């Protein structure tokens, strides 16, 4: 882990995992979004501008950008979630295009070249004289891990509560959910706002980590990738799935980045192979393997037990 | 005391009147049968009352409160619960989970407590799970508790549908063809449960095309045809009413004779 390149890869795996979990959260209410990257971008741009133009510290800008992304999601979702289904997909797609173009054409966002020279987070002075200095990659890695942890804890405790149960009910059958008194629109909006808030949070981190952002990083291609992390990771596993999906589909393109002519084929074949052979995704594979191990163990125990009895 | 009052309700789909000027009242703790040939507007009336479809004209009030135009979840919260004509269930979930989701609106602890899994929330969750088990027991589904709802025999699936609706503890229960596709034994079972419910002071409106079943259970019958109410009264009167026989029972003479 001392190698800074690996450290960078794992950091990006964490960032992408949070984005994938956001997609999975929205999907868990029966909505498919193609606009995840836009909220990621809103968080990144908001944070960069708050620090560079307004002069706030990163530690204040990060939560503010998350709140801003969540507020944009609230307004957008308020209008778009009425058209659950294909309408919602189209609206999020359009939103993604529009946001990318706003970043590209409105001067304050720095044009298509984006914003460069975004300062790294301010150092933290620990109470007993220690100092966490963000000029190095290692503190960034830990910060991204904390963000991932925050997302995992928040999402898991929601999924395991009655709120998660209501989401689950809405995804499977919104009419039946409404018939038992679930306010489907409100629950969907809540999930959408929360997922977008987390996207804004890691967007802020990403801006200050990479120190340069440009509009195309937040375009439709990224939204598609976010979808890939979640879907190929396994949609039945809303937390573990995106993490595994992000691991494979962040690392794979990186490994082959020096063979650009081969990379699309490798990624593409992996994609198709997972879709065909692992309909429950990578998390499904983990489950299958775990079950097989348990079965083997049980069989072994039975065998030895029988042996003892005959002795 | 009138529990549900549907007054002069019309529902048009384009130019077609699915309901025209229907008046329909239900008093507390009675069982009302709603019958009529296919396309008479029975299910439309259910959909309008439960907020799944907006009315074109007219008002609906429940317990003295005007509920016209409310969302379906709001109406459910006021105490009207329904089942669906097709077996609408979470087929890939256990019976227990199906009924537990029906308890959703009875949680009193706020959402943030649910998020933090506080002690009060966990206690409430435990109570809900107990209620769910009691309800499954009452409806005779305890043995299927952990089976996937989709694996159940058809008749039991219908009972489970009623069970989900009951989990919301409704004042008024709307059952949309609970006996469809069941054999005689299963129908008897469902009707038995409905009678037992009555002892629990639940008001019921029953859409049904199995006339025998309706006559045996209901206090009063309302007949719809082409979106209009053509007759209303106690079962015996309805069976003799020429208008009803012409519109509906004429094709089912055998049924009537045997019933």
Descriptive account of the structure:
- The complex is a heterodimer of chains A (311) and B (259).
- In chain A, a hairpin with a 5-residue loop joins strand 2 and strand 3.
- With 311 residues, chain A is mainly alpha-helical.
- The longest helix of chain A has 30 residues, at 281-310.
- Chain A has a single domain (4-260), classed as ABC transporter involved in vitamin B12 uptake, BtuC, CATH 1.10.3470.
- Chain A is built from twelve helices and four strands; from the N terminus they run H-H-H-H-E-E-E-H-H-H-H-E-H-H-H-H.
- In chain A, helix 1 (4-27) crosses helix 10 (240-255).
- Chain A is globular, with a radius of gyration of 22 Å.
- Chain A has helices at residues 4-27, 36-54, 58-80, 86-105, 137-159, 162-172, 174-179, 184-210, 220-233, 240-255, 263-277, 281-310, and strands at 115-116, 124-125, 131-132, 212-213.
- Chain B has 259 residues and is of the alpha/beta class.
- Chain B has two domains: 1-79 and 170-259, P-loop containing nucleotide triphosphate hydrolases (Rossmann fold); 90-168, no CATH class.
- The model of chain B is unreliable at 252-259 (pLDDT under 50).
- The interface between A and B is medium-sized, with 22 and 33 residues.
Strand order of the largest sheet of chain A: 1-4
Tally the structural domains of chain B. 2
**Over all CA atoms, what is the radius of gyration of chain B?**
19 Å
Beta percentage of chain A is under 5%
Low-confidence blocks of residues of chain A: 307-311
Rg of chain A computed from alpha carbons, rounded to a whole number of angstroms? 22 Å
Shape of chain A: globular
**Main sheet: strands, sense, barrel of chain B:** 6 strands, mixed
The CATH class assignment of the largest domain in chain B is Alpha Beta
Number of helices of chain A: 12
Which two chains form the greatest contact, residue counts included? A-B, 22 and 33 residues
Count all strands of chain A and give the number: 4
If you consult CATH, what is the topology of the largest domain in chain B? Rossmann fold
For the termini of chain B, the CA-CA separation is 32 Å
- Portion in beta strands of chain B: 15-25%
Ranges of chain B with pLDDT <50 over ≥5 residues?
A: 252-259
The helix/strand order of chain B is EEEHEEHEHHHHEHEHEEHHH
Name the CATH superfamily assignment of the largest domain in chain B. Answer: P-loop containing nucleotide triphosphate hydrolases
CATH topology (fold) name of chain A? ABC transporter involved in vitamin B12 uptake, BtuC
């Amino acid at each position: 882990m001392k190698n800074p390149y690996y450290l960078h890869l794992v950091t990006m795996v964490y960032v992408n995992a949070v984005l994938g979990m956001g997609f999975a959260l929205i999907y868990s209410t029966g909505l498919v979004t193609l606009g995840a990257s836009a909220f990621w971008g809103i968080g990144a741009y908001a944070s960069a501008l708050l620090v560079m133009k307004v002069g706030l510290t990163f530690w204040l800008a990060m939560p503010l950008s998350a709140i801003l992304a969540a507020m944009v999601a609230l307004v957008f979702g308020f209008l778009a979630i009425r058209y659950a289904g294909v309408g919602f997909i189209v609206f999020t797609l359009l939103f993604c295009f529009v946001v990318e173009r706003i970043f590209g054409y409105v001067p304050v966002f720095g044009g298509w070249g984006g914003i460069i020279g975004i300062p790294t987070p301010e150092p933290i002075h620990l109470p007993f004289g220690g100092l966490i200095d963000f000029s190095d990659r290692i503190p960034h890695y830990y910060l991204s891990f904390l963000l991932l942890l925050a997302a995992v804890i928040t999402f898991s405790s929601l999924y395991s509560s009655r709120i998660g149960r209501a989401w689950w009910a809405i995804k499977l059958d919104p009419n039946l959910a409404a018939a038992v008194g679930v306010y489907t629109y409100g629950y969907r909006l809540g999930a959408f706002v929360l997922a977008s808030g987390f996207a804004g949070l890691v967007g802020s981190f990403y801006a200050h980590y990479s120190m340069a952002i440009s509009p195309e990083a937040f375009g439709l291609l990224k939204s598609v990738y976010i979808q890939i992390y979640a879907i190929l990771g396994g949609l039945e596993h809303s937390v573990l799935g995106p993490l595994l999906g992000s691991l494979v589909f962040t690392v794979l393109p990186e490994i082959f980045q020096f063979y650009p002519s081969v990379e699309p084929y490798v990624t593409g074949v992996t994609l198709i192979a997972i879709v065909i052979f692992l309909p429950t995704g990578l998390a499904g594979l983990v489950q299958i393997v775990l079950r097989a191990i348990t079965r083997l163990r049980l069989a072994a125990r039975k065998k030895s037990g029988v042996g003892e009895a005959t002795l | 005391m009138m529990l549900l009052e549907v007054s002069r309700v019309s529902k048009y789909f384009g130019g077609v009147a699915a309901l025209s000027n229907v008046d329909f009242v239900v008093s507390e703790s009675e069982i009302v049968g709603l019958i009529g040939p296919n396309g008479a507007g029975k299910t439309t009336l259910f959909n309008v009352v439960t907020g799944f479809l907006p009315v074109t004209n007219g008002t609906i009030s429940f317990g003295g409160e005007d509920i016209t135009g409310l969302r379906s979840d709001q109406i459910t919260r006021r105490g009207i619960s329904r089942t669906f004509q097709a077996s609408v269930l979470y087929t890939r979930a256990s019976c227990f989970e199906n009924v537990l989701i029906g308890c959703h609106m009875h949680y009193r602890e706020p959402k943030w407590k649910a998020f933090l899994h506080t002690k009060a929330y966990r206690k409430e969750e435990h109570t809900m799970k107990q209620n769910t088990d009691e309800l499954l027991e009452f409806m005779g589904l305890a043995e299927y508790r952990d089976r996937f709802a989709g694996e159940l025999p058809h008749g039991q699936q219908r009972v489970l549908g009623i069970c989900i609706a009951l989990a919301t503890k409704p004042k008024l229960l709307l059952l949309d063809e609970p006996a469809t596709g069941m054999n005689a034994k299963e129908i008897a079972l469902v009707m038995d449960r409905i009678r037992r419910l009555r002892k629990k002071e639940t008001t019921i409106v029953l859409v049904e095309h199995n006339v025998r079943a309706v006559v045996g259970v209901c206090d009063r019958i309302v007949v719809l045809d082409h979106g209009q109410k053509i007759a209303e009264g106690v079962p015996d009167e309805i069976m003799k009413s020429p208008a009803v026989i012409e519109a509906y029972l004429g094709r089912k003479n055998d049924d009537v004779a045997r019933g």
